[in-house]
Automatic annotation (TrEMBL):
This is Glucose-6-phosphate 1-dehydrogenase. Keywords: Carbohydrate metabolism, Glucose metabolism, NADP, Oxidoreductase. Belongs to the glucose-6-phosphate dehydrogenase family. SUPFAM superfamilies: Glyceraldehyde-3-phosphate dehydrogenase-like, C-terminal domain, NAD(P)-binding Rossmann-fold domains. The active site is at 243 (proton acceptor). HAMAP family: G6PD (MF_00966). Transmembrane segments: none annotated. GO terms for cellular component: cytosol. The keyword Glycosyltransferase does not apply. Its EC number is 1.1.1.49. Residues 193-486 form the Glucose-6-phosphate dehydrogenase C-terminal domain. The keyword Glycosyltransferase does not apply. GO terms for molecular function: glucose-6-phosphate dehydrogenase activity; NADP binding.
Length: 486
């Protein structure tokens, strides 16, 4: 791996503390970091290197399991990578001083001018920072440069296009690494292997044998401390435009010619290009929006969305979305893809269920036996597992046919975190599991009529009690087609 300088904007923030430092620490322990590396944390606070290193150490104590089982000298060794600079992201002078500091470290360690800029900051600063990196000369190095940014990427199609145009003034497309943390989840990365490394599944992976696909990302948490952001975003922007459409793309993509970042992205984009656009007047037929009312989760009563701190009592924001999508191509024509996501639901679960066509049921009907469809269930979180449901005679129950589940599951404690995998790829320059601009743009294009329908209030806002799996209308969406959520 190339030696580099890792420049972290927003180093005193929450994401850095919870995810970035612990993930870097795991990479360090696994010897997956370059030998020569400087990490420069930037933030508004006037901290010294020592204060920053203490902060990193504390974050490991709170959020890194592995730090509890290592010798203190290992942690010390890790902390030596970290330096700190106060920086006002809007002040160009600050960037020039930063350039001097970076050059000094590069010379001291005699490392090439490879610079990775990670923006863990509020989205309104993405373009400001990128343009200042360019203007200050920070971005004109003799080595490579990369810009890593988090969602949200825009608020709608237009704002996303504007943001992209600004970023592109400072960085080439292949230098921009857009993070969707769902793409870092090991089971999401495994989708490609399930579909393409198993001839048995590959033979079944199309409308010939699959009746429908269901993708669920349910959460038990509410808006938490993000009322300002969430009340503007809703489930449609927060989860559907990015995470859920990414899962649709990865499930539906066709076999790439080779497993390169470009080829995989080409296949993902192909899916979005064939995704049937929603027209403003048919949004309501294919989409259910909901908002939670008061209820109970794990025995504790929780307030309704509009009673949450920071949320307007009149808010019409969506905390739940279910939708039916069609991919109009030769492989998936006629197979509905159902997605659903929501806050304050009954359980935390992200999973993909592939339901196979059930063509043999008549044979067993005569014997009064039920033969539920075969299912392939991919559990993404909180547990990672792959589960196949077959029908089999149960000798303990009068040899009646019953569904059995064959499961493979990973040992949770050995599974790397999404951020760990993504950071490793970003350090290495592998962009396979980062989102390309075209994917963002086509996703917003698909979502745009939904946003407009919501703005015009053209769609009923269904209530659902906290602690349930969403409004009844979400069940009806599948019942109309003769299916049910698994
Ligand atoms: C984030 C959303 O992108 O994903 C959050 O902004 C949501 O609202 C989170 O809670 C869910 O991620 P995970 O990994 O817990 O499924």
């Amino acid at each position: 791996m190339d030696s580099l300088t890792f420049v972290l904007f927003g180093a005193t923030g929450d994401l850095a503390k919870r995810k970035i430092f612990p993930s870097l620490f795991n990479l360090f322990l696994d010897k997956k970091m370059p030998d020569s590396l400087t990490i420069i944390g930037l933030g508004r606070r006037e901290w010294s290197d020592e204060v920053f290193q203490k902060h990193v150490e504390k974050s490991l104590q709170s959020f890194s399991e592995r730090s509890k089982n290592v010798d203190a000298y290992k942690i010390k060794e890790f902390l030596r990578f970290f330096h700190y600079r106060p920086l006002d992201v809007t002040d160009q002078e600050n960037y020039k001083q930063l350039l001097n500091v970076i050059q000094k470290y590069e010379q001291e360690l005699s490392i090439p001018e490879n610079r990775l800029f990670y923006l863990s900051v509020a989205p309104e600063f993405f373009d400001v920072i990128a343009l200042n990196i360019k203007k200050s000369g920070l971005g004109s190095s003799k080595g490579w440069k990369r810009l890593v940014i988090e969602k949200p990427f825009g608020h709608d199609l237009k704002s996303a296009q504007e943001l992209n145009a600004k970023l592109r003034e400072a960085f080439e497309e292949d230098e921009i690494y857009l993070i969707d943390h769902y793409l870092g989840k090991p089971m999401v990365q495994n989708l490609e292997a399930l579909a393409f490394a198993n001839p048995m599944l590959q033979a079944l992976w199309s409308n010939k044998h699959i009746s429908n696909i269901q993708i669920t990302a349910s959460e038990t948490v509410g808006v938490e401390e993000r009322a300002d952001y969430y009340d503007q975003a809703g489930a449609i922007r927060d989860m559907v435009q990015n995470h859920l459409l990414q899962l649709v793309m990865l499930t539906a993509m066709q076999q790439p010619e080779k497993l390169s970042a470009d080829e995989i992205r080409r296949q993902k984009i192909r899916v979005l290009e064939h995704l049937r656009p929603l027209q403003l007047d048919d949004v309501g037929k294919n989409l259910v929006r909901g908002q939670y009312s008061l209820g109970e989760i794990n025995g504790e009563s929780v307030p309704s969305y509009t009673a949450e701190p920071g949320i307007k009592p009149s808010s019409m924001n969506d905390t739940f979305i279910a939708a039916r999508l069609w991919i109009d191509d030769a492989f998936w024509g006629g197979v509905p893809f159902y997605i659903r996501t929501g806050k304050r639901m009954k359980e935390k679960s992200t999973r993909i269920v592939i339901e196979f066509k059930n063509t043999i049921s008549d044979l067993y009907k005569e014997k009064n036996e039920k033969t539920p469809p075969n299912l392939l269930i991919i559990e993404i979180s909180p547990n990672e597992s792959v589960l196949l449901q077959f029908n089999s005679k149960n000798p303990l129950n009068n040899s009646k046919i019953e569904p059995i589940k064959v499961t493979f599951s990973a040992n949770k404690k050995d599974v790397p975190e999404a951020y760990e995998l993504l950071l490793f790829d970003a350090l290495n320059g592998d962009s396979t599991f980062f989102v390309q601009w075209k994917e963002v743009e086509l996703s917003w294009k698909w979502v745009q009529p939904i946003l407009e329908a919501f703005e015009q209030n053209a769609l009923l806002l269904h209530g659902y009690s906290a602690g349930t799996m969403g409004p009844r209308a979400a069940e009806q969406l599948l019942e109309e087609d003769g299916f049910n959520w698994w």
